[in-house]
Amino acid sequence: MDELKLYTYIAVFGSFGLYFAIAWWARASTTSDFYVAGGGISPLQNGMAIGADWMSAASFISMAGLIAFLGYGGSVFLMGWTGGYVLLAMLLAPYMRKHGKFTVPEFISDRYYSKTARIVAVLCLIIASLTYIIGQMKGVGVAFSRFLEVDYDLGLGIGMLVVWVYAVLGGMKGITYTQIAQYCVLIFAYTIPAIFISLQLTGNPIPQLGLGSTLADGSGVYLLDKLDQVVTDLGFKEYTTDNMGGSLNMFAYTMSLMIGTAGLPHVIMRFFTVPSVKAARSSAGYALVFIALLYTVAPAVGAMARLNLMSTIEPTAGQNLQYDQRPQWFKDWENTGLLKYEDKNGDGKIQYVADKNTNEMVKVDRDIMVLANPAIANLPNWVIALVAAGGLAAALSTAAGLLLAISSSISHDLMKGVLTPNMSEKNELLAGRVTMTLSILVAGYLGLNPPGFAAGTVALAFGLAASSIFPALMMGIFSKKMSGKAAVAGMCSGIGITMLYVFQHKGIMFIPGTSFLGGLPENWFFGISPNAFGAVGALVNFAVAFIVCKFTGEAPKEIQQMVENFRVPKGAGAAHAH
């Protein structure tokens, strides 16, 4: 066994052993443990768990890959996801925590005094969460297929088994403590290679500063200027210009990610695990710090990965790398099918250019950038192995949170809340574990047939959450008079128009030949791409809800009083769930 494989096995299976041990120690024995970890998690612990839940495969694997290829345009992911977290922490989480229920659909059911609203919220949650989980499953498959040198399908199966063990056994309690460990793994795995590469390229050990520094070769050229030159010489767009299709699309994309983020149920659920509203606010602050540690490094990782990739494959224009002299990392990623070369002119050299007709790198999957970057930069094997463990930790932590959100919405909100209200706690706990198992199987199937690269699929999930759940929560908290019928009409119209727009342009579940308008920008509504359309769907949701409310009448006085009660800050620090 070679040294890299040995280090990888130690890092990956060592971390898995830790997760299993934690899950067994923190296994759930009650529904409160299963859904909200008994409500006894400290703000610091919860902040770290939120960080792991937040930093999915999309954040760890795909975000820097998108920034590497989109350049300046990729900043929409940084702005949208970070801004959305601030919205969630300030406008939603404290009020929902004060109300004191387990799940988002349960809050919507109470606020809108309607089982119909609860069912619609469950459906919206499942649609958004399943779309989101596809990205996590692809991340698991990508990481396993490369680093354990197994088939993508087998890698995905191993990942599903790992999540099943600690999520089904421990519920939210097991997931929380496992996510704390996963956060530690993924943050070290992300920042250590970035420090190495920043030192290597610029001489500055702080990646955030290295991004704006001059190169270490003494030329006095800034890293971003060098990257602009490298990519434009090969016909690509300048790295530091907008590649997102115009200002309006970039704004809509950012807003869709932002409000979609604030409406993601698996993150909101985390705020129900702390003992008070004050603790919920504190954990939001801690989480922002933990998230910032990765998010501020991502632009540097993306830019440096792109520069390393281009400089290796195309050292200088016209003096291309011989294919039979390609480095080992190139061969490794070719074996996964995520990197493909086709010798179009028969000269045995690799031409990597923007022109599709002459470009011989026919596939460079964006999701490989973070995972391949340490090997491209010739970093030590233990660093490469650490990145493998970090990528898996990021994907598994978010997958577990999403699966719990899906299973609790079915077992707690649909079965206990609507269909069989007299279900015993023991049966509800069993139902939660059975639905979790089924959710993992469905997620695995979608992971085996993934639509697009991870972050692109995730962006769509945020759009679906933005158009359905976020407006309902905002109106529920800040509009006392909003009625149940109006909220249901708003949710249905918001997610309906968003899904219709996506299907028209991308096809149903992205199946070729099922789109009506094609995915071309000239067919977009005001130049807004399908992944950015969630912001428009949210506006439709708000508009329809307020119009319907005018015609159907306002919420009953007791509901308005309930809203007033959980909005009043007096005594908030001591508020506990009942």
Describe this structure in words.
The protein has a two-stranded antiparallel sheet with strand order 1-2. The longest helix has 51 residues, at 152-202. It has helices spanning 3-25, 31-36, 43-54, 57-70, 75-99, 104-111, 115-147, 152-202, 207-210, 223-233, 247-262, 265-268, 277-295, 298-313, 328-336, 369-376, 381-419, 425-448, 454-478, 484-506, 534-552, 557-567, and strands at residues 339-340, 363-364. With 578 residues, it is mostly helical. Residues 507-520 and 570-578 have low confidence and may be disordered. Helix 8 packs across helix 18.
Write a brief structural summary:
The protein is an all-alpha fold and 578 residues long. Helices cover 69% and strands 1% of the residues. Strands 1-2 form a two-stranded antiparallel ribbon.
Average pLDDT over all residues: 79
Distance between the termini: 56 Å
The profile of the biggest β sheet is:
2 strands, antiparallel
* CATH homologous group name of the domain at 3-306 and 379-467: Sodium/glucose cotransporter
Strand order, sheet with most strands: 1-2
Number of strands: 2
Based on helices, strands and strand pairing, what is the structural class? mainly alpha
Count of individual helical segments: 22
Oligomer: single chain
What is the H/E order? Answer: HHHHHHHHHHHHHHHEEHHHHHHH
The top-level CATH class of the domain at 3-306 and 379-467 is Mainly Alpha
As a percent range, the share of strand residues is under 5%
CATH architecture of the domain at 3-306 and 379-467: Up-down Bundle
Low-confidence stretches: 507-520, 570-578
Write down the CATH topology of the domain at 3-306 and 379-467: Sodium/glucose cotransporter
| Radius of gyration over C-alpha positions, nearest whole angstrom | 24 Å
Helix content: 55-70%
